[in-house]
């Protein structure tokens, strides 16, 4: 199973929108092999500090950054599509 890491803050409107998009899109059977690890950067500071980003939400697979900052549904879909091709 592929793991998508999403760094977020709960009060961030962009993070909340990204979470809504993910929740909706992950219902699609095509993405059944993808799991999401939600990383609250305030609670997992060491892990957050080990990754190179400034804005949330930020998406990683392994150590590869896929996206940083505000995101729309199409961009989230593109991230998920890229993961099923790996």
In short:
By secondary structure, the chain is an alpha+beta fold.
Would you write up a description of this structure?
- Helices cover about 35% and strands about 25% of the residues.
- The longest helix is centred in the N-terminal third of the chain and has 13 residues, at about 15-25.
- With about 90 residues, it is of the alpha+beta class.
- The chain has a four-stranded mixed sheet.
- It has one domain: Glutaredoxin (3-Layer(aba) Sandwich), CATH 3.40.30.10.
- α1 (about 15-25) packs across α3 (about 75-85).
- The protein is globular and about 35 Å long.
- α1 (about 15-25) links the parallel β1 and β2.
- It has helices at about 15-25, 45-50, 75-85, and strands at about 1-10, 35-40, 60, 65-70.
List keywords for this structure.
alpha+beta, 4 strands, four-stranded mixed beta sheet
């Amino acid at each position: 199973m592929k793991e998508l890491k999403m760094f977020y803050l709960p009060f961030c409107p962009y993070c909340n929108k990204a979470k809504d998009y993910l929740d909706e899109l992950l219902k699609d059977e095509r993405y059944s092999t993808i799991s999401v690890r939600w990383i609250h950067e305030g609670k997992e500071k060491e892990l957050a500090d080990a990754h190179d980003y400034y804005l949330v939400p930020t998406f990683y697979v392994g150590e590869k950054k896929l996206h940083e900052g505000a995101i729309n549904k199409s961009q989230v879909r593109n991230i998920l599509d890229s993961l099923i091709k790996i």
